[in-house]
């Protein structure tokens, strides 16, 4: 990861009521520093799709995911979020890819908390979100059909550490005009493949 970009995590992090921004940023930065991104994996994923933007995010441990790397689409109309961007775990592809595989206690803590709505498509009912996450576990990837930002669709897959805990995720993100339901299985499989190519130092000795 590029250190200058990781500093943006600390600069943009929203501190909790009992934690400073810097305190919250440290575990995020540690996860980012441990993440091993093969140089071609993000490009391969982007180029295997209609050249859509690729994001890698890490879980902040507090109900959100933080973008730590990005490979932009060359299309004039594209989905763009900055490095360090913080997004809700329950309404983004990268977030739901992690959420679906969290330990039961952590999952329930989020599902029984506030599930904020960002537009009419956001899933804010806990039972409906449980059903969505069950599908994520079954197929291995999450689909965001405009749940966070209207008109922005994405497909994300979890990245596991040595203990098989979901600590990060990778996704392709696109405007709804280039989203094709009949391509989801293909794009989902490519996203899972990219996630599996990304490792962590503690997983590789």
Distance between the termini: 19 Å
Classified in CATH, the superfamily is GAF domain
Overall residue-averaged pLDDT value: 81
Q: What is the helix content? A: 25-40%
N-to-C series of helices and strands: HHEHEEEHHHEEEHE
CATH architecture descriptor: 2-Layer Sandwich
Summarize the main sheet.
Answer: 6 strands, antiparallel
What's the β-strand tally? Answer: 8
| Helix/strand/pairing category | alpha+beta
In one word, what is the shape? globular
**Count of spatially separate domains:** 1
Kindly provide the name of the CATH class. Alpha Beta
The parts where pLDDT drops under 50 for at least 5 residues are 1-30, 201-205
Give, in spatial order, the strands making up the sheet with the most strands.
4-3-2-7-6-5
What name does the CATH topology carry? Beta-Lactamase
Q: What's the total helix number?
A: 7
Alpha-carbon Rg, integer: 16 Å
The amount of beta strand, in percent, is 15-25%
